[in-house]
Specification:
By secondary structure, this protein is an all-beta fold. About 5% of the residues lie in helices and about 65% in strands. It folds into 2 domains: about 100 residues, no CATH class; about 190 residues, Maltoporin, Chain A, CATH 2.40.170. Strands 1, 2, 3, 4, 5, 6, 7, 8, 9, 10, 11, 14, 15 and 18 form a 14-stranded antiparallel sheet that branches. A two-stranded antiparallel sheet has the order 12-13.
């Protein structure tokens, strides 16, 4: 159950706003009839406020700043430690649902945007400080996933850029990029053998840099061509920040064409046109071996649409 309240106030060139959310969540678990345990539940109540200001600095130029706090409950898989069900054997280990606590984040953001006839540009700064961050720091499971536990403190800070250019008729060039610094300040790693205290490590599968760029060409009123590139920097496969457990960086190029005639549209999309072998994710097994999930090779998708 959620309750919302919003408000805004214009003062000169500034618009002040506030968003308030009250939220109550409940998790009720009804075991199988043969499990030998009774029904159990847990509930949480959260208050999530956010406020900020947008300032008009001139024609097509504005700046904003905001600060907010958000708390959320663990997922079912977190409460059950990756198990499918509770039973008489495991209920003493995590049957009280206290294994993972709710996480909270304090989010500070600021940015500036420019809008002109032929181009737009937006730049944002953000700083997110977590308490009891629900992070993948537990032991790996047989399926390759990693159990999530709370870490006392962590942060994510970065810069976001978004731009587009329309200086030539029928042509649009756009792109966005994110650079971030992400750290777990400290946690005790008990995923493999004796506990080890790790400090200032990068979270699992959290790349420092992401970027996309795209060119759209309106060749005719009903025909559009697009070319898109995607880049992702390297990311660590576990919380040790070890260089031998890394998801390599990759760059992919996709393209598409779309033709519309009346109430019918036909799209053709090519993915990974370079047909390069790249890895979209990965994990480290309980024995320490590195496993990768391969992205699809060159693929062509054809989509037909009919509008009514």
């Amino acid at each position: 159950m959620s309750v919302f309240a919003k408000g805004a106030l214009d003062v000169g060139r500034a618009r002040w706003f506030v968003d308030l959310q009250g939220r109550h969540a409940r998790f009720r678990y009804t075991p199988d009839a043969a499990a030998g345990i009774g029904e159990r539940d847990i509930d949480w109540t959260f208050f999530n406020p956010r406020g900020g200001v947008t300032l008009q600095l001139g024609p097509g130029v504005s700046a904003f700043a905001s600060y907010g706090a958000t708390t959320r409950e663990p997922a079912r898989s977190d409460l059950l430690a990756g198990e499918d069900d509770l039973n008489a054997v495991n209920v003493d280990d995590f049957g009280d649902f206290s294994r993972v606590r709710p996480e909270s984040v304090r989010d500070l953001e600021a940015g500036v945007s420019f809008s002109r006839a032929t181009w737009d540009l937006q730049a944002n700064l953000y700083s997110m400080d977590f308490r009891n961050d629900i992070a993948r720091i537990g032991a790996p499971t047989a399926s390759g996933s990693v159990l999530r536990r709370n870490v006392g403190a962590s942060y994510r800070r970065g810069v976001e850029l978004d731009a587009s250019w329309r200086g030539i008729p029928r042509l649009t060039v756009a792109g966005n990029a994110v650079w971030s610094a992400n750290r777990i300040r400290q946690f005790t790693d008990s995923s493999r053998g004796a506990p080890v205290v790790r400090r200032n490590v990068e979270p699992v599968l959290t790349p420092r840099f992401l970027a996309t760029h795209r060119i759209d060409v309106l060749a005719a009123r009903a025909l559009t061509f697009s070319l898109e590139g995607r880049y992702q920097s390297r990311a660590f496969l576990d919380n040790t920040s070890s260089l031998d457990r890394v998801l390599p960086s990759f760059y992919l190029v996709d393209a598409s064409a779309r033709v519309t005639r009346g109430d019918v549209a036909l799209s053709v999309r090519g993915v990974n046109l370079g047909n390069s072998q790249r890895f979209g994710s990965g994990s480290v097994s309980s024995s320490g071996g590195v496993r990768y999930f391969v992205l699809p090779a060159r693929s062509i998708f054809v989509t037909a649409e009919r509008f009514w």
